[in-house]
Amino acid sequence: MSIDTKRLSIGKLLGSVNEVFRIPLYQRPYNWGRDQWNDLWEDLIRIDGNETHFLGSVITISQQKQKGFTYLELVDGQQRITTILILLIAIRDLARESDEERAAYIDNYFLKSSTIDEFEPKLILGRKDNKLFKKLVEKRFNGDESKNKKIVQAYNFFIQKLQNSKLNWQHIYTKLLDSLDLVLMVTDSYYDAFKLFETLNNRGLSLSSVDLIKNYLLSKFSSNEDEDLLEETIEIWDSIIENIEDIQSVRHDKVRFFRHYLFSTEYGVVTIPRLYSKYQWLIDTSDDLSGLVKDIWLHSEMYLKLYNGMMGIKEIDERLKNLVRIEATASYPLLLKCFSQELSKEQLILVLDAIEVFMVRRSVCDISTRDIDRVYNHLALEAFTKQNPIYYIIGYLKNKTPTDNEFFLHFQSRDFNRSGQTKYILEAIENFLTNNTKEKIIGERSDVHIEHIMPREIGRMNSNNDWQKELGVKATEYTLYVNKIGNLTLLGSELNITASNSSFSKKKGKYEQSAITITKNLCQKQRWTFDEIVKRSKYLAGLAKKIWAFNNTK
User: Fold this and answer.
1) What is the reported pTM?
2) pLDDT-derived band at 437, boundaries 50, 70, 90
3) Which residues on adjacent β-strands are paired with residue 182?
4) InterPro entries, per this entry (predicted)?
5) Other C-beta atoms within 10 Å of 116: how many?
6) Distance (Å, whole) CA 313 – CA 305
7) Strand partners, 451
């Protein structure tokens, strides 16, 4: 990180002859208000004698010289610098009434930069503020215009303060230039500037890779000084972010989408720390930046539809929602590619079913997800170069999926603790047994809960003593069995609450009232023991092996 750092007075900061500060067009407008103006004013007038007051840091990016001017792009500090210059304009305008020479000096040395041939305002603001600010600098401001603008309000605030102050304007002018200090940080790297900003502004909300990407991308558009194109790009970017934020899931943040976009369009898996540098390269090498932004937007539109299951075809939408429930959204790079191709409904269903088999089996068998991004990145970029893409996708996933025997054994022995995925698995088994005839019963998923036949905890309440008697001396082993699939079923919320920690004989009365087959079948049992849990786990594992099988995807 190469950064030039200097502590400077305001006079030295603004007194450089040919330096011009420029606020990027994509930055927010000037928005300081009375509280901030008053804080600056109070800090200034409280300075005593040779004391100085430190205003903080200003972060800039050094840009190529143009027409003899050195432009410094303000990444952080634009509100302070703008306010200080507005105060200087107010001092200059008061000075014109009694000291025209001093007013001209302020004008030429602190409000403007110059070369042999021309002048440039010391500060160039963003697209919404610069015209008005330039009028103030050039003394073309009509006091009645734009009264509601923050810049005008700030100017009027300082004029009033100067007129009512016990200190004359000359004293305040001297304090402003000589007694206010700040640290100027200059780098030629956007990445270094934005990461430095994050470090110095540690307010609990970090500047994410997506923020860095946005700033770098928009800086390219603002350098072209085409405000209409910049405005259009900002609107498109905002739409991208809105689409991602509409995904109501803590597991899906903006960074994940931008990684998935890359995985669907570029070879190689990019880690989160490398995401910004990858997009920086993508932006720098693009021949059509507007086209790139629009392509990201189109993918964000598709991404939202994938997550919400809103492709408009019932069989496909149901499968997309299932993938969310089993936490299989790592497959989105492949799906972004598939849904951009001219595939039939049947072909898309084959892909979705294959992904579900792949993800469920790997999850149940606790296969590491370390290579999962590489799998989907490979398929997104390679499958559609093959003669039969769908066959290639299914075959590739099958080769990386646990075998029938591995799946069968793990399904029986593992603990099922992830409630969303477990509930989906139990529902799938129920639908398989009933050929989907009971789909309406478990369709209202918020009203159906996972029921532990043997309660999750026994012995804490008197009502659980029956379980201790039922299990006998092995009661201490219940933690080894309580979360096995054989001890789990589905039950409507009202029945679930009333069944709760009751004995098995009492629970059967509630199970008898249930319309869910895998629950109703439990009524055939006289007792519920560890042996029964093992038997039922094995039975359900056999069904699962048939449900999540690649032969179902052909």
Assistant:
1) 0.75
2) very low
3) 8
4) GmrSD_C, GmrSD_N
5) 6
6) 11
7) 489
CA dihedral 269→270→272→277, nearest 10 degrees, is 180
Q: What sign does the dihedral 301-303-306-307 (CA atoms) show?
A: negative
Distance separating alpha carbons of residues 529 and 217, to the nearest angstrom: 63
Report, in angstroms and rounded to the nearest whole number, the Rg of the chain calculated over CA atoms: 33
Per-residue pLDDT, 289: 93
Under a CB-based contact definition with an 8 Å cutoff, are residues 28 and 160 in contact? no
Structure-block tokens of residue 313: 């075809």
Q: What is the 3-state secondary structure (H, E, C) of 65-88?
A: CECCEEEEEEEECHHHHHHHHHHH
| Average pLDDT rounded to a whole number, residues 146-162 | 87
Q: Which residue has the tokens 């940080």?
A: 185
CA-closest candidate to residue 130, choices 22, 219, 222, 218: 22
Strand, helix or coil at 22? strand
Q: Residue 333 and residue 337: Cα distance in Å, rounded?
A: 6
By CB atoms closer than 10 A (0-12, 13-18, 19+), residue 77 is buried
Rounded-to-integer distance, Cα 363 and Cα 425, Å: 12
Quickly state the pLDDT bin for 443 (edges 50, 70, 90).
Answer: very low
C-alpha pair distances (Å), 373 with each of 226, 376, 397:
38, 5, 13
Could you count the other beta carbons within 10 Å of the beta carbon of residue 73? 21
Nearest to 254 by CA among 273, 270, 241, 267: 241
**Cα–Cα distance, 244 to 222 (Å, whole number):** 24
C-alpha 145/C-alpha 95 separation (Å) is: 22
CB crowding 169-183: b at 16 or more within 10 Å, else e: beebbebbbebbbbb
User: Mean pLDDT score of the chain, rounded to an integer?
Assistant: 86
- In our burial notation (b when 16+ CB lie closer than 10 A, e otherwise), range 118-155 reads eebbbbbbbbebbebbebbbeeebeeeeeeebbbbbbb
E-strand ranges in 278-319 read none
Helices of type H across 201-266: 209-223, 227-245, 254-265
251 compared with 88, residue with greater pLDDT: 88
Please say whether the beta carbons of 269 and 373 come within 8 A: yes
Backbone angles phi, psi at 521, to 5 degrees: -60, -20
d(Cα 59, Cα 187) in Å, to the nearest integer?
Answer: 8
pLDDT at 400 over 60: yes
Q: Is 20 helix (H, G, I), strand (E, B) or coil?
A: strand
Record the tokens describing residue 181, joined without a space: 């200090």
Token pair for 137: 């600098």
Residue ranges of alpha helices (H) inside 26-113 are 34-46, 78-95, 100-106
Q: Looking at beta carbons, which pairs linking 383-389 to residues 24 or more positions away fall under 8 Å?
A: 383/334, 383/337, 384/337, 384/341, 389/341
Among the listed residues 150, 120, 153, 149, the one whose alpha carbon sits nearest the alpha carbon of residue 137: 120
Q: Which helix (H) or strand (E) holds 318?
A: helix 314-325
Q: How far apart are CA 545 and CA 269, in angstroms?
A: 32
| Ranges of each domain in the chain | 4-189, 209-401, 411-553
pLDDT score at 440:
40
